UniProtKB/TrEMBL annotation:
<dbReference type="Pfam" id="PF01547">
    <property type="entry name" value="SBP_bac_1"/>
</dbReference>
<keyword id="KW-0813">Transport</keyword>
<comment type="similarity">
    <text>Belongs to the bacterial solute-binding protein 1 family.</text>
</comment>
<protein>
    <recommendedName>
        <fullName>Probable sugar-binding periplasmic protein</fullName>
    </recommendedName>
</protein>
<dbReference type="InterPro" id="IPR050490">
    <property type="entry name" value="Bact_solute-bd_prot1"/>
</dbReference>
<keyword id="KW-0732">Signal</keyword>
<dbReference type="GO" id="GO:0042597">
    <property type="term" value="C:periplasmic space"/>
</dbReference>
<feature type="signal peptide">
    <location>
        <begin position="1"/>
        <end position="21"/>
    </location>
</feature>
<dbReference type="InterPro" id="IPR006059">
    <property type="entry name" value="SBP"/>
</dbReference>
<comment type="function">
    <text>Part of a binding-protein-dependent transport system for a sugar.</text>
</comment>
Amino acid sequence: MRAGSVAACGLALAMALPALAWAQASVPKVDVMHWWVSQGEQASIDVIRRYVRQAGMAWQEEARPGSGTARYGDFVRQRVEAGRPPAAAQMIGFDIHYWARRGALASLDAQARVQEWDEVVPYGIQRLSKYQGHWIAAPINAHATNWLWVNKSVLDRLGGTAPDNWDALIALLEKAKAAGVVPLAIGKEAWEQTLLFESVAAGVGGAEFYRRAFLDLDPQALQPQLLRTIFQRMRQLRAFADAGLAGRTWDQATRMVMAGQALLQVQGTWVNGEFTSRRMVPGRQFACFLFPDTQGIYLFNADQYVFFQGAAMADATRGRFAATLMDTGLQRDLNIATGAAPARVDVALEPFNACGQQLIRHLRASNMRRTVLGSVAMGNANPPAVKTAIYQLVHAHFTGAIDDETAIARLQAAISGPASE
Ligand code: GAL
């Protein structure tokens, strides 16, 4: 390009600048807080960002890791207490009700009516997205937690297949151990170990036990013999993990499976997102199997967005952002990236990978049977105080600090205690 035309361009740009500044000032902005920082999660937030921009809004974000568990929640609380709540925040489970109870969240009823959220969001998720009958959160996905994520070539090398029941799972893990592969990859955090616990508990006790014990907090459901089996199975699984778990996060455990250092991980469907972000395909590089004996149950963790009152966001912008999040196109593209099922049951399943398609079918069927049940570990089953008590006892048991009987007594106390927040 010649110097003259550079100058001409500069001039044109200078003349356009005031108009540009005006246009920017009038573009509605969404100010978002979220915890999506791993490679797969970044691919997911990219989708939301793209849809927001396409809908004519500017995007501003603050990302803090912590998987929606304590650390991230602390950051949200700090911002609210400092008088600068995020306009919109990613949130899961009963943390949503914590803020709703304080009158901190804006109602999304108007948007919900227009897009008929009541008709398309699974009943089990609505229980968390609504407070006292009003929509206060927009669910963007339905992750499931009762899944095994398996390295396919290790599985083939071992001559293994999908474990259909508990004994088959143990036999498969034994094979990996004998072959010198870490059978079970897991990290150090209590929520991850509680993920393992909830699948074991659902497998041992079934849907009704899980609902009564963890959602209804009914102490009558806690038959000692059943609890003994659960903790005995947890001990059995612990023996298949390696010592390295003490210094590892959930996504590092996922990378062990990817690299074939470990056979499998028991985790949420965000692991499907991690594989997908690395162009790995089910049936080739990895496999997904339902946790044995939980075949009829969809243990869910729905990522949702809440909108804080008192943040600088016009009602119309809030409505537009919520509508964008609930758009079927966003829920399709987003969840191809997240690895979850969409939070709406009416999104076509064809574009999803094989694990995603299985999930969507499983969610629809479980919704009909009312076995879409909240994940304990991800705070979708019960209030934070109960969840935290369960974290502590499961972690103490998993790391060998307490025995089965102590864990049982502490679980009974956690479930029977006052259901405060
Ligand atoms: C969950 C969230 C997932 C994924 C996971 C791991 O709480 O629902 O989308 O982010 O944490 O960080």
